Amino acid sequence: SRSINLAVIPGDGIGQEVVAEGLKVLSAVLPQDVKLETKEFDFGARRYHATGETLTDGDLEQLKRHDAILLGAIGDPSVPSGVLERGFLLKLRFAFDHHVNLRPSKLLPGVATPLAGQPEIDFVVVREGTEGPYTGNGGTIRKGTEHEVATEVSVNTAFGVERVVRDAFARAQARPRKKLTLVHKNNVLTFAGHLWTNIFNKVAEEFPEVTTDYIHVDAATIYLVTDPGRFDVIVTDNLFGDIITDLAAAVSGGIGVAASGNINPGREFPSMFEPVHGSAPDIAGQGKADPTATVLSVALLLRHLGYDSEADRIDAAVTADLTERAGKPARSTSEIGDALAVRVAG
Amino acid sequence: SRSINLAVIPGDGIGQEVVAEGLKVLSAVLPQDVKLETKEFDFGARRYHATGETLTDGDLEQLKRHDAILLGAIGDPSVPSGVLERGFLLKLRFAFDHHVNLRPSKLLPGVATPLAGQPEIDFVVVREGTEGPYTGNGGTIRKGTEHEVATEVSVNTAFGVERVVRDAFARAQARPRKKLTLVHKNNVLTFAGHLWTNIFNKVAEEFPEVTTDYIHVDAATIYLVTDPGRFDVIVTDNLFGDIITDLAAAVSGGIGVAASGNINPGREFPSMFEPVHGSAPDIAGQGKADPTATVLSVALLLRHLGYDSEADRIDAAVTADLTERAGKPARSTSEIGDALAVRVAG
Ligand SMILES: CC(C)[C@H](C(=O)O)[C@@H](O)C(=O)O
Ligand SMILES: CC(C)[C@H](C(=O)O)[C@@H](O)C(=O)O
């Protein structure tokens, strides 16, 4: 008999609420013979305030024993900026080598977008997750003085770039349009730019069916609002991916429906799935948060573990729910979760 | 009697066409007693192919003798990516210490925007122009091998950050809404982030009338499409500024109307004014390019040199022209230039 051994990190703010709904839908979609075991972890602001810890070696050992991780959101205004981001979120991505950060964007019929004319949007961003300006390299001298110098070093390796580029080509190959766009800034960041561009062009030779193009990150933001339909799969650096996926989420239904996977494709470590949105402390505890992004992250999780038909059922349920919901009064977090649980079970 | 000694760099592609119209409007708007002297420089792809040069010390010496520089666009697919960008555009910004890169965004009535509901947009981005990831620091080892490592170093100094932050506060103070937003990624790029945030907060104390806030660059792209009206003045790093000003241009009428100034506020060196758009080789020589962005850059140039009422006349002419033009058939580059020249003279 099959089983899923899931680490659950509700985290801060609305994280608690949306994860509860994600688990509700997960339980509803799984067949009887799959045993779901969950273990909850209390990472985030409360734990930090109570113990000063964000993520210890012992924590990593425990998390490692799971098949996957479901995360709500981490972050609270009571914690200085950067402490939980670098000390928990990024530490986990780096420790578990989550080098493929997968962020699909699909505008569903009837879903509100800030763009005029309800354009067709259906693309996936493959964001590199373990290199670039996110490595924490850099430093500060003469801190706090008028002579302070602070540096941030973007580190890019052939090893790190090639594996994520290869992953993106494989994803493009598997999609009907078979198109892959490299987004970078190779006319200014020429060292990293050459590395990315050369490897992209080299790997392209192995995927002759995939159409490729290149766009500077600044121009990419223009296309994302004027012609988002031009994108199929995008592969990009960690920081550029961070920026354009927020924009991509905004134009394709908002961060209420944007899912993401922090994936270790070789499965040496558990992958982590989380909504793109943050902990939104302003609306926490009020049942106002949309759990759809978390539910869609559960679908990514299932697909990663090989439960494709269950993932498909969740995607279909969300599509049906969003399409019907258009124009209707807002529902509470648990009402949305209940509706989706009913749909996936039915 | 007054005079303007202007260096003109038409550059590549549509640069030639739009600069001609910019000069047409400039001549039309200047009072009789102002003597306009222009000297044209042939920088860009042709010069590079002919001589291998992008911008020599001798060139800089010659440019330095002018009151300001008007640039069309530099760049051509026949030149490898980065050569003209680093070798000309960025070299000039750094050599002439253009640390205030000014990019206004205003959506004029009737002008097309990809956003639904024609939102109100009227803000200015003050982009730092001489630091950050644009310094060219970094390098590559084991180039072309599977062990290649490429780094890009973002360099941020208290001196460099403080002067641009101070400039942005002064601009915010002079505007009716008096609001300044710092855009950075201080939760991940913590070294540079702390420097920017601390200096921003310190300088804020000198401007008690200015309301301030802080937004991460990823979230800023969301607001730029969902609530652009929230912005008044934005101050940000060189790379973040590059990215968000293309998006800002896209939502506020397109790059056909986006102007920019590369400013040396202390006037130790001539400042340079240019449209945000590139050389667009695909439409070059066909009279299809919109010269409005260049004409608005001429207005920024005039304001920088103290010709405020002339700059106001250009802005008003463009507003009137764009408002009337809405929905009408496209005009040629020179038709638009002619129409604007008539308006500013009238
Ligand atoms: C919270 C932050 C560290 C994170 C990032 O920058 O990657 C977030 O913005 C995201 O996109 O997941
Ligand atoms: C062409 C390039 C060097 C330049 C930049 O990145 O600054 C351009 O994108 C701009 O915004 O002026």
Would you mind describing this structure in some detail?
2 copies of one chain form a homodimer. The model of chain A has no long low-confidence stretch (mean pLDDT 97). Chain A is globular and about 55 Å long. In chain A, strand 8, helix 6 and strand 9 form a beta-alpha-beta unit. The first copy, chain A, has 346 residues and is an alpha/beta fold. Chain A folds into 2 domains: 185 residues, Isopropylmalate Dehydrogenase, CATH 3.40.718.10; 127 residues, 3-Layer(aba) Sandwich (Isopropylmalate Dehydrogenase). In chain A, the strands form 2 sheets. A 10-stranded mixed beta sheet of chain A has the order 2-1-3-12-11-4-5-10-8-9, with helices on both faces. In chain A, strands 6-7 form a two-stranded antiparallel ribbon. Helix content of chain A is 41%, strand content 22%. The longest helix of chain A is centred in the C-terminal third of the chain and has 18 residues. In chain A, helix 7 packs parallel to helix 8. Chain A is built from 11 helices and 12 strands. One 3-isopropylmalic acid (IPM) sits at the interface of chains A and B. Chains A, B: Pfam families: Iso_dh. Chains A, B: Pathway: Amino-acid biosynthesis; L-leucine biosynthesis; L-leucine from 3-methyl-2-oxobutanoate: step 3/4. Chains A, B: It is an enzyme of class 1 (oxidoreductase). Chains A, B: Catalyzes the oxidation of 3-carboxy-2-hydroxy-4-methylpentanoate (3-isopropylmalate) to 3-carboxy-4-methyl-2-oxopentanoate. The product decarboxylates to 4-methyl-2 oxopentanoate. Chains A, B: Its cofactor is Mn(2+); Mg(2+).
